Structure formats: C-alpha cells, structure tokens
Amino acid sequence: MLDSDSSNENSFDEDEALVIKEAEEASNKGQLNDKSYQHLTFDVTLLMYSAMNRYEKAVRRILDLKADPNIKEDEDGITALWFSICCGPQKPSVDLAKMLLEANADPNVACYEGEVTPLMNAVRFNSVDAVNLLRKHGAKLEPTDEDGKTALMIAKENGFEDIVKILEDHETKN
Questions:
Q1: pLDDT of 59-99, one tens digit each?
Q2: Residues 6+ positions from 6 with CB-CB distance below 8 Å
Q3: Low-confidence ranges of the chain (pLDDT < 50)
Q4: 167: domain CATH number?
Q5: Contact assessment for residue 121 and residue 109, using Cβ atoms and an 8 Å cutoff
Q6: Separation of alpha carbons 81 and 86, rounded Å
Q7: Torsion sign across C-alpha atoms 169, 94, 105, 107
Q8: Could you list the residue range(s) of the whole structural domain that residue 156 is in?
Q9: Percent of the chain scored above 70 by pLDDT?
Q10: How many structural domains compose the chain?
C-alpha cells in the first residue's frame, strides 16, 4: 500500500507526463503557445501551467519545443517567469526561473497593470537566490508597484537586509 506522500508524488508525475504529451501534440499542430489550459478564471499556456505547478521536466520539454516564455495571460498579464517566482504560497523556483530566463524570458515584464515585476515578487518572498538570478539577467530596479515602491524599498520595509545589500550594491555599480 502506498503512503499518501508517495500517492501524491505519483499523481504529480502522471499530470506532468500528461502535460508533456499535450505540449508535444500542440507543438505538432502549431498550437504550443495557445492559451488552452484553464486555471481558476483565466486561460494559460502549457508553459505557464507547468511553471505554476513546478513541473520542471515539462517546462524544460516545452521550452525545447520552442514555446514563447513571454506570452502573457490575458487578465493580469502574468508570464511563465512570474508564475515561477510567485505562485500562491509556494516559494520561488529558482531552477524554473533560470530555465525560463535562459530561454529569453524578459525579467522586466510586469503584470497587474504593469505594476508588479518578478523582482518585486522575489523580494517579497525574501528569496536571495531569485533576486540574484533576476539581477544577473537584467531585472531593473526602477519600476514601482501600485504603492509607488521599488524592489529596494520593499526589501528595506520588510527588513530583508541581505536583499537590500544586493540591490544597493548593484545600484552603486551603475
């Protein structure tokens, strides 16, 4: 008899395998970047769906099939990179973000009416690794959120000293 963790893992693997199969079929039909997956109240691409569910194998395969990592879902403008950094209560997936950035995902695409960047989310999650990765790939410090705060201001406000140091060090180099 399988314990619940093992059962959940098998279910996860099966769902990820199904997504990979659907991506390969969609690619063959020229529909890889279609927003065909329903998530809550909005439609997402297979790449977005895989990023939000932390399906690393699926993200890798979908990117290999040449999916566009910069497609935005319609309602809030969220991209696969944004999902990899901030999706519900999950911590940022630096591995997924790295795959997406190496496939030319734009680290500066903001969602929610252009007011929240992946860097801001990485800061909010206090993820030093995600902040370093995004900065390495050109994430800008200047954008402000709906409250007029930059990523640096958010880090200072929350007492995230390691991130403050990273962002201030970069600011002084430019």
A1: 999 999 999 999 998 778 889 999 899 876 678 899 999 99
A2: none
A3: 1-6
A4: 1.25.40.20
A5: no
A6: 9
A7: negative
A8: 4-173
A9: 85
A10: 1
